[in-house]
């Protein structure tokens, strides 16, 4: 093979590798929104809706479901975050309020965002929140404490074999991200 032919072959290979790398980057970038859409549609991975549900639904007094509450602080989050009750029993369709407490032991204001997850995943689309602290960022001053309500109900269409639903919240420190966004908006 001539040197010119070898050089052309090498250039084609380099172009293919560069295009392959760009395609892989694009695919990886698109995975997060695609994953979110799939989770929203299927209830996969226990993702719940981030908007308030309508509270009008028929009560199913023939079933009693245990709802457990679990809280976790994400990496770097110093808040003491916990539910006031670890579990309750509710009838599907029964509107229920539970409260979570949070304390900020830090010497600075922190902005937190709670991310919910439901197990089993099949129950996620049936746990409907009419009010939740997870819908918005929560700001807590240094040494501050707060009580955060969450109002929910279980859709009576919850599969009959599900007797226990666990709602888990992970609280993340989003202070830097929120402040950076505010700085960008102020610079405009």
Describe the structure concisely:
This protein is α+β, with helices and mostly antiparallel strands. It has 2 helices and 9 strands.
Structure, explained:
- It is a single chain.
- The protein is of the alpha+beta class.
- It folds into 2 domains: 1-42; 49-180, Ctag/Cox11 (Ctag/Cox11 (Pfam 04442)).
- 28% of the residues lie in helices and 34% in strands.
- The chain has 2 helices and 9 strands, in the order αβββββββββα.
- The chain has helices spanning 3-42, 175-187; strands at residues 65-73, 80-83, 87-90, 96-103, 110-119, 127-132, 138-140, 145-154, 164-173.
- The strands form 2 sheets. Strands 3-1-9-5-7 form a 5-stranded mixed beta sheet, covered by helices on one side.
- The longest helix is centred in the N-terminal third of the chain and has 40 residues, at 3-42.
- The chain is flat.
- The N and C termini lie far apart (59 Å).
- The model has no long low-confidence stretch (mean pLDDT 86).
């Amino acid at each position: 093979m001539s040197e010119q032919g070898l050089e052309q072959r090498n250039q084609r290979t380099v172009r293919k590798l560069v295009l392959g790398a760009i395609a892989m980057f694009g695919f990886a970038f698109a995975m997060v929104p695609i994953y979110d859409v799939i989770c929203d549609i299927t209830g996969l991975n226990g993702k719940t809706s981030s908007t308030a549900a309508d509270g009008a639904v028929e009560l199913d007094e023939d079933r009693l479901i245990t709802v457990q509450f679990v809280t976790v602080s994400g990496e770097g989050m110093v808040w003491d975050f916990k539910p006031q009750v670890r579990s309750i029993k509710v009838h599907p369709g029964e509107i229920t309020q539970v409260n979570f407490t949070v304390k900020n032991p830090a010497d600075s204001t922190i902005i937190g965002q709670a991310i919910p997850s439901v197990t089993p995943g099949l129950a996620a689309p049936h746990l409907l929140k009419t009010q939740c602290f997870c819908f918005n960022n929560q700001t807590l001053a240094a040494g501050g404490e707060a009580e955060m309500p969450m109002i929910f109900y279980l859709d009576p269409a919850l599969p009959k074999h599900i007797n226990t639903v666990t709602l888990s919240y992970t609280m993340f420190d989003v202070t830097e991200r929120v402040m950076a966004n505010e700085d960008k908006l102020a610079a405009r």
